[in-house]
Every structure is written in structure tokens, then in C-alpha cells.
Design brief:
365 residues; alpha+beta; Metallo-beta-lactamase, Chain A; 6-stranded mixed beta sheet; 11 helices; 22% strand; globular; hydrolase; zinc; MBL_superfamily_lactonases
Length: 365
């Protein structure tokens, strides 16, 4: 046990948002029934969600572009010769007004890029890769605090931190610790003193006893001295504000979740369940292998599969996301699915140039 807090500690914490009943229907049937249930629930939720309103503003902030194994990002479908592709991690900044008139700010995927490098998988990859190559393949675009300053948002004004899952995430700078951290040479005070971390309860509980499939991607020891009260654990899907929801999408990890946004261009969904919009409609992809693989195996989506905790659940979750998202107004072959880590063309990675990219979600009401 690495964590000091337990499931009992988490049970005493207050949660946030209002539960979304249409996504909480229990399906007791077989695998095919669960897939059909996900598609049906997504269609029902989509109709209801559009009527909840819209946030005031959404901004997209590029953080870092980094290498990622092709066999993970495009699962078994890619025929690219490059062993690595590149993905760009981005933060979304969402602002809205609550029913009581209070201004709210949510950060989706505010990754601490520096501390994220200590994730076991990436630390080992860096150890085996010559520094000049790392310098050419890893591009830092901006920091979380730098982007917020540019948007005129003070750290104390941030209400919520949300991640689709806690792979690679070290939150100590963001929420502070209760003890001195030898590896940091300090006891961090919270950069975001008023922020709650919205996370699925079962992911927090699972981090206390990781499965070997999970250990390369988590940093559980960094949560040991995080005060438990910074978390706002949720069980399932919740509506946070007008046109803002966090929905449970298990599979990539047990406690995976996705952000859903209603905007002036329609409904968007964001997560890391897939790394490119075309992975939801691979029949339109020009990436080597995707269309043929999808057709041959009768699989309508191509998963991001660095961890295969419950692959059928992840497939169903992507179908749920696919059912909720609107068509892109730029190219209707693709959906308004915004990968939190989006496939990015890089000259070093032949055969991995995406057919279509979103780059950003922008919205202002």
C-alpha cells in the first residue's frame, strides 16, 4: 500500500455535479447487449445534453509533443514502418457561470509535463534514447501556468482539475502535499489552492493496489502525501454546468472518464481512448492499414491500447463517445472527437500522418 488514504477516507468526501441517469442504466446482458446498450444510452444522452446550454468560453492550450509507440496508439491496425508516432498533449480551459451566478473555471488535462517524465514507461524510454534524439522528438509548447496567465486566469480562480485518467500524472505541485518531498527538495504548496480534482472513485481506489499491466503508467508514490480532501470523487457520469459533463468511459483504465462539451459547433467529446478523430471512422482514414484492418476484422473503431485493462469495455466506451459527438463542420466524414493526446505529423515517423486533425476546440458564447 503506497497511499495513506483508503476507500473509507474517500467515502467521506463530497462529490460534484448532478448524476446523469440515462448513462447509469445497468445492463446485465452479454457482451453484445452491453455494446448495444452503450450505443442506445449515448443517443439518449445526446438528445438531453444539447438542451443543457453552453459554457461561456473554451480555450485550447498546447503543452507538449512527444513520441509514443505506434503499436499502442493505433493498436493492431497500423501498417506504418515507424515504430513511434507523435502525439500532442493539450489542455482545455472551460469557463461558465453557475446557476447561483458564480464564475467557474475547469482545466481538462493540465499535465505537469516536467514531473510526468518520471512515469516508469517514459523514464525507461528516455534512459535508452540518446539525448539529441529526445531533443528532436520532444517539443514543449507552453506550460499550464503560462497559458493561464495569457488567458488572464489566476491560479486561485481555478475550481476544477480533470483528467481522463491519471496515467503519468503527478499532482503534487498543483494541489500541494502534507509532507516534505525528498525527490522535489521541498514541500509543495498548492498552485491551485481552491481546485478540486474530479476523478472516478474506482480509479483512486485502484491506485492503492495496481495490477502489473498498470504499473508502467502510474506514479502512485507521488499521491502518498496529497491531502485526500483535494479530491472530488464521482461514481459514474455527472453534469457539471451548462453544456459541460464528465462521463464514465471505462476500459483504457478501470476509472476512465471523458469530457463532453456543447458548443456553437455542436457536441464535442474528449479523452485519450483514441488518438485521432479518424480512429472513430477508420473507413475514411488514409493511415496505412486502418481502413483495411477495420473492414477485415469488422471493428468500427481503433483503440489507443497502451494498457488493455478491459478491452471490450474500452471499445464500448469509444462507441458511446462516437454516438454522442457531432459531425465535424470542417469535414463531415469525421466526428467532433478531440483526442486529449492527438496524433501529430512528424518527419521522423513515416506512415503516421493523420488524415484529419482538430488541433483545438474554440468556443465563445
Amino acid at each position: 500500500m503506497v497511499l495513506r488514504w483508503t476507500a473509507e477516507d474517500l467515502s467521506d468526501l463530497s462529490s460534484v455535479g448532478n448524476g446523469i441517469d440515462v448513462l447509469e442504466r445497468e445492463c446485465t446482458g452479454g457482451p453484445g447487449d452491453r455494446l448495444r446498450a452503450a450505443r442506445s444510452a449515448g443517443a439518449d444522452f445526446r438528445r438531453e445534453f444539447a438542451a443543457t446550454g453552453m459554457p461561456q468560453r473554451i480555450d485550447t492550450c498546447d503543452l507538449v509533443t512527444l513520441p509514443y509507440p505506434t503499436r499502442f496508439g493505433l493498436f493492431r491496425a497500423s501498417r506504418a514502418i515507424a515504430p513511434f508516432l507523435s502525439i500532442t498533449n493539450r489542455m482545455l480551459v472551460i469557463r461558465w457561470t453557475d446557476v447561483d451566478g458564480r464564475q467557474r473555471v475547469l482545466l481538462f488535462e493540465p499535465s505537469d509535463v516536467g514531473l510526468g517524465r518520471n512515469t516508469p514507461y517514459f523514464a525507461e524510454l528516455a534512459r535508452r534514447t540518446p539525448a539529441p534524439i529526445i531533443k528532436r522528438m520532444v517539443i514543449e509548447h507552453g506550460s499550464v501556468l503560462g497559458h493561464l496567465a495569457g488567458l488572464g486566469i489566476a491560479p486561485a480562480d481555478v475550481d476544477y482539475l480533470v483528467f481522463d485518467h491519471l496515467h503519468t500524472q503527478d499532482l503534487r505541485h498543483w494541489v500541494g502535499t502534507t509532507a516534505y518531498q525528498p525527490d522535489l527538495g521541498e514541500q509543495p504548496t498548492a498552485v491551485f489552492p481552491n481546485a478540486k480534482v474530479i476523478v472516478q472513485r474506482d480509479e483512486l481506489i485502484g491506485m492503492s493496489d495496481l495490477h502489473p499491466l498498470q504499473t508502467p503508467w502510474y506514479q502512485p508514490q507521488t499521491y502518498r502525501d496529497i491531502p485526500v480532501e483535494v479530491f472530488a470523487p464521482i461514481d459514474g457520469s455527472v453534469l457539471l454546468g451548462p453544456g459541460i459533463a464528465v462521463i464514465k468511459t471505462p476500459g483504457h483504465v478501470f476509472g476512465n472518464q471523458s469530457l463532453v462539451l456543447n458548443t456553437s459547433t455542436g457536441i464535442w467529446v474528449s479523452s485519450e481512448n483514441v488518438i485521432a478523430a479518424e480512429c472513430l471512422t477508420p473507413e475514411h482514414s488514409t493511415l496505412p492499414g486502418l481502413t483495411r484492418w477495420s473492414s477485415s476484422w469488422q471493428q468500427e473503431v481503433v483503440l489507443n491500447a497502451n494498457t488493455i485493462e478491459t478491452t471490450a469495455d474500452q471499445y464500448n466506451s469509444v462507441v458511446l463517445e462516437k454516438t454522442i459527438a457531432d459531425r465535424s463542420q470542417t469535414d463531415s466524414r469525421f466526428l467532433q472527437f478531440f483526442p486529449s493526446s492527438e496524433l501529430t505529423p512528424m518527419w521522423t515517423n513515416p506512415g503516421t500522418r493523420p488524415t484529419f486533425s482538430h488541433h483545438a476546440i474554440t468556443h465563445q458564447s
